Amino acid sequence: MSVNPMAYEAQFFGFTPQTCMLRVYIAFQDYLFEMMLVVESVILKKLDGFPGCKISPCQIRKSTEKFLLFMKEHFDKLFSKMEEVLLQLVLNIPENVLLPEDKVHEQYPYTKEQFQALQDEIQQLQQQYRAEASAGQALQAELEEQKAVRAELEKILQWFDGLDNICREHGISNFKESFAFLTHNSKKLQDVLKDVEKKSKKIKKHDQLL
Q1: Torsion (CA) 184, 190, 192, 194 in degrees, nearest 10
Q2: What pLDDT is stored for residue 124 in this prediction?
Q3: Which of 5-19, 64-78, 110-124, 185-199 is the least confident region?
Q4: How far apart are CA 207 and CA 196, in angstroms?
Q5: What φ, ψ does residue 208 adopt, rounded to 5°?
Q6: Of 49, 63, 155, 192, which one's alpha carbon is 20 to 30 angstroms from that of 139?
Q7: If DSSP states are collapsed to H, E and C, what string results for the chain?
Q8: In the 3-class helix/strand/coil scheme, how is 2-54 assigned residue by residue?
């Protein structure tokens, strides 16, 4: 069999020419074996019609195998010549022929160095794209965080607006006075709460004595 890889022919046919020739060889060989079995069976039937024949089936099988070996040797020689002709004249693409899908290479030829430079540029662009995508994700996360902070600030501003309205209702106009007002009221509430707790404890003790 031929050792030439014939890659361009495989691209065109969809299979390697050597694979095609191997399948043809196996098909012919199988057919030869089958024919020899048929011939052997015919000979055995003919011998059954000759009473007293001293030729045994075992001798017939040996003779069939010898003849098969003889035929196979000649077949291999003939097939080798046929394979050479088919690979050179039928299954071969001439060097001056360019397949349609490869015509773009003829229009835009590239050397190995240019192709490698193009590959390097593509890889660099891919890395830049990944970096920009990562930066975009980080920016998106930062924007989401800013939205959350802004929402909290709006709540605080609303609370201060409410506080300002309350202070105005009590005649307090600036933040310092508002803060002092809240502190004073907070202390009053704490005193009231302590007084309530004391009275509650006294009531509990009184109930226990009763």
Answers
A1: -150
A2: 92
A3: 185-199
A4: 16
A5: -70, -40
A6: 155
A7: CCCCCCHHHHHHHCCCHHHHHHHHHHHHHHHHHHHHHHHHHHHHHHHHCCCCCCCCHHHHHHHHHHHHHHHHHHHHHHHHHHHHHHHHHHCCCCCCCCCHHHHHHHHCCCCHHHHHHHHHHHHHHHHHHHHHHHHHHHHHHHHHHHHHHHHHHHHHHHHHHHHHHHHHHCCCCCHHHHHHHHHHHHHHHHHHHHHHHHHHHHHHHHHHHC
A8: CCCCCHHHHHHHCCCHHHHHHHHHHHHHHHHHHHHHHHHHHHHHHHHCCCCCC
Structural tokens at position 61: 């099988």
Average pLDDT, the chain: 79
pTM over 0.70: no
Amino acid (one-letter) located at 117: A
